[in-house]
Here is the input.
Amino acid sequence: MPIIDAYALEHPDLELSCMNYQEFQEDLFKLLDNVEHGSNRINRIVSELKEYARKRERTELRWIEFKEVIERAVNICRAEIRKKVKSFEVRIAEETLRFLAIPKRSSRSLSIC
Here is the structure.
């Protein structure tokens, strides 16, 4: 900036990006502030994502019954299913597969992450 400032003093009619030098300088500093603010936000978001990933790594796996997942999925979709078909029946064998997963419980459902 000192070099451009010195040049602008010697050339008062200097224009950059269709702005006189004073306007350009003000605009440039605003842009740099915005870049700094944006990069700080990005750093914070990345840090939060890293922390979230670390928490997920520490989460224990547990055995999930496939039957439970199917039942919950059907319950979530039941209203929509009733609109589309006259009759719908789910038959799940008592002995179904189990798999290891990180369960994520919400108030309505079990989702597998």
Remarks:
- Helices lie at 2-10, 21-58, 66-84.
- Residues 106-113 have pLDDT under 50 and may be disordered.
